[in-house]
Design goal:
This is NAD(P)-binding protein. There is one protein chain. It contains 14 helices and 19 strands. By secondary structure, it is of the alpha/beta class. It folds into 2 domains: about 375 residues, NAD(P)-binding Rossmann-like Domain (Rossmann fold); about 90 residues, no CATH class. The N terminus is likely disordered. Bound molecules: uridine-5'-diphosphate-glucuronic acid. Uridine-5'-diphosphate-glucuronic acid binds next to helix 9 and strand 14.
């Protein structure tokens, strides 16, 4: 495919270092260009009855029931499933046996009570997305790297079932790490991660970060918080609580376990900026009482807490300020502009432009963001004395870091001037694509790309809502007029630059939604 060729060529031709987190694009695509569990349908089927059903509940186990441990044919799905390689052992008296099976199928057997007669009434479901074969692989999981115990990290991703979180989890799993996902499923979805469920390196916890959690962990990516304006404004108090109490709890966990902590902050900390493009030293222009304040101020206090734990307790912290990001797995009703426009264009509906469409944003494709996040988490301060600039020397901190784990305290970010960022891994880092577009330009590009994806002569001509297929709606309050990251720091510190052009990323995302439309789930 055109995009794969381009991206792969960039990997090898732009002269930049390939890190262990640069996974081949096709391996990543395998995880989202397929029907997710949860987007298909359930096919009832009847498992073969055992020749000699056990007489008592205590004998209900996988040894007594060959169904659970051997190859089995499910006539209704017409395919052969192999569950032996991926058996889940539950307590013998458990009412539910769950077998993660092939990459796109699983069986859930409900034995409503432990008696032979009731077993006869038990029902099995093969979960088979349309067009899939239910099972068929001995190892149902995508191949992951094998790491030594020295290299392998136990990594917590809060909000790991969401759009950004699930792509991060994919990458960390493919890299061979052990990943624990924590999500309250307010905006996250289990189907984003269904391909990992049952994998020995993977654990999914339904847990809200506003409650403390006691686990052992090496690294924490703290992503938990709805990011779309309609989601975070739906319950403003909860949004603030998530950012404040949730971050407090997660930092407490980092402190106790001495884990490295990365906060997913946001470009929204700059508010409606009066400095353009936005460098990290810019302190922003946020309305503390407006409708966006719960998120903007929530993330600002999350940053403040992060540096409180850094200075006071020596927690090894990283802060990524993430600019507008898009890609496959964004929920279709997410409400953000890219998902709205693509879904509207695919459905032949008018694209809803808020205001006159002259406001600007800089859109980053999800794979670029994940490169940046993992790069930042693993960045170490440069040991090269040439890189130790005076600005990045530790300021005089009475009562500064108390732990020897921390390499350098956060300097005050200098306003302009010559700075060498390579020695300062702790200060905030902008992650965004500096290519800036008006919302109107985005609408035009989306219409073109969707036309290509649908392979129709003119998608735009099929969009209702006036001559140009646009419906103009009022501008939301406090909506930033312009936004573009200054990415100098990310480039110098992480050797990171976005590689995905907007057109290519939009095509990838439109193809993802188009597949969902064809399978009937959109
Ligand atoms: O996508 C993101 O990463 C960011 O999305 C939002 O920030 P915002 O820039 O307001 O994102 P959108 O809701 O996608 O809006 C972008 C622009 O498009 C406009 N828009 C949005 C939706 C739509 O249907 N039409 C439309 O014109 C909005 O008014 C805004 O000017 C969140 O507040 C951020 O936390 C998040 O980081």
């Amino acid at each position: 495919m055109e995009m794969a060729t381009q991206s792969e060529a960039q990997d090898t031709q732009d002269g930049r270092i390939l890190h262990e987190w640069h996974i081949p694009l096709d391996d990543l695509r395998n995880l989202y260009f397929r029907p997710a569990l949860g987007s298909g349908y359930l096919i009832p089927s009847t498992p073969p009855r055992p020749a000699h059903p056990p007489a008592a509940a205590a004998h209900y186990n996988s040894a007594a029931f060959p169904t659970y441990g051997s190859r089995q044919r499910f006539p209704s799905s017409g395919s052969t499933s192999s569950f032996g390689a991926n058996q889940v052992q539950t307590h013998p008296q458990s009412h539910v046996q769950i077998h993660s099976a092939a990459s796109n199928a699983s069986i859930v057997t409900l034995a409503s009570s432990a008696s032979p007669s009731q077993f006869a009434r038990s029902v099995s479901y093969v979960h088979a997305p349309p067009g899939s074969s239910a099972g068929g692989y001995d190892n149902p999981y995508p191949p992951t790297r094998v790491l030594t115990s020295f290299e392998k990290r136990r990594i917590l991703v809060t909000g790991g079932a969401g759009f950004v979180g699930s792509h991060l989890v994919d990458r960390l799993m493919l890299m061979g790490h052990e990943v624990i996902v924590l999500d309250n499923f307010f905006t996250g979805q289990k189907s984003n991660l269904s391909h990992w469920i049952g994998h020995p390196n993977f654990e999914l916890l339904r847990h809200d970060v506003v409650n403390p959690l006691l686990i052992e962990i090496d690294q924490i990516y703290h992503l938990a918080c709805p990011a779309s304006p309609i989601s975070y404004q739906a319950n403003q108090v909860k949004t603030i609580k998530t950012n404040f109490i949730g971050t407090l709890n997660t930092l407490g966990l980092a402190k106790r376990t001495k884990a490295r902590f990365l906060l997913a902050s946001t470009s929204e900390v700059y508010g409606d900026p009066d400095v353009h493009p936005q460098p990290e030293w810019y302190n922003g222009n946020v309305n503390p009482t407006g409708p966006r304040a719960c998120y903007d101020e929530g993330k600002r206090v999350a940053e403040t807490l992060t540096y409180g734990y850094f200075y006071q307790d020596g927690v090894d912290v990283r802060v990524a300020r993430i600019f507008n990001t898009y890609g496959p797995r964004m929920q279709t009703d997410d409400g953000r502009v890219v998902s709205n426009f693509i879904v509207q264009a695919l459905k032949g509906e008018p694209l809803t432009i808020f205001g006159d469409g002259s406001q600007t944003r800089s859109f980053m494709f999800i794979h670029d963001l994940i490169d940046g996040l993992i790069g930042l988490m693993n960045a170490e301060p440069s040991q090269n004395p040439d890189h130790q600039s005076s600005e990045s020397q530790p300021p005089d901190l009475s009562g500064g870091p108390t732990s020897g784990d921390v390499d350098q305290p956060v300097p005050d970010l200098p306003h302009g001037g010559e700075v060498d960022h390579r020695s300062d891994v702790h200060s905030p880092v902008n992650l965004g694509n500096p290519a800036e577009f008006t919302v109107r330009e985005l609408a035009d590009l989306v219409a073109e790309v969707v036309e290509e994806v649908k392979n129709r002569p003119s998608a735009r001509s099929t969009i209702d809502g006036g001559d140009d297929g646009i419906r103009q709606l009022p501008m939301p309050k406090d909506d930033p007029r312009q936004r573009r990251p200054d990415t100098t720091r990310a480039r110098e510190l992480l050797d990171w630059e976005p590689r995905w052009m907007l057109r290519d990323g939009l095509k990838e995302m439109a193809t993802f939604y188009w597949d969902r439309m064809k399978e009937g789930s959109l």
